[in-house]
Amino acid sequence: MRILIVEDEPKTGDYLRQGLSEAGFVTDLVRDGLDGLHLGLSGDYDLMILDVMLPGMDGWTLLQAIRRNDKATPVLFLTARDQVEDRVRGLESGADDYLVKPFAFAELLARVRTLLRRGKVRESDTLQAADLELDLLRRRASRGGQRIDLTAKEFALLELLLRRRGEVLPRSLIASQVWDMNFDSDTNVIEVAVRRLRAKVDDGFEPKLIRTVRGMGYVLDESGS
Q: Is Chaperone among the key words of this record (predicted)?
């Protein structure tokens, strides 16, 4: 899942990006309101974390522009402005939640997951193929009732494959969606990650779910071929 962070304070922005990445999210970080507006309108994000006091355009104005363009992306205001009237203004401007700095990362993460559950994840909290299950809220995977321990990147990779089950995913798409990077043909990071994930998901189970499609990419389906 992709999260856009609009935060001009360098330490806070880097802290958010690192923490959310470790929690399994793909993040984009911009440090001024104009860049935030551009990505907020042109990008496909599951959530925005938005500061109020930003260079270029403040968070209030940015959010109003987002909503005027019928973008329903959930927005969490994260700001040092802690007055009641600030919170009311933020929520009435179209924000879905409001958290005051300084904040505990555990609370931020809980609020992020709650907003995502209300949004695009509302359709289902669990992804499934055959006897493989991925619990998006508890961040757990299991197959045949057996727990599968995954790293954050392995979880994100499996989530992508399950969400687009039956579709051959090229390495370039996987690189952008899971690693947030442009595909570099000199790196084998994707091949290594898929091999490790396949060993955890398929070894000892039938049917085999993750396949390599030579010259094209990877697919997760239940054909077993």
A: no
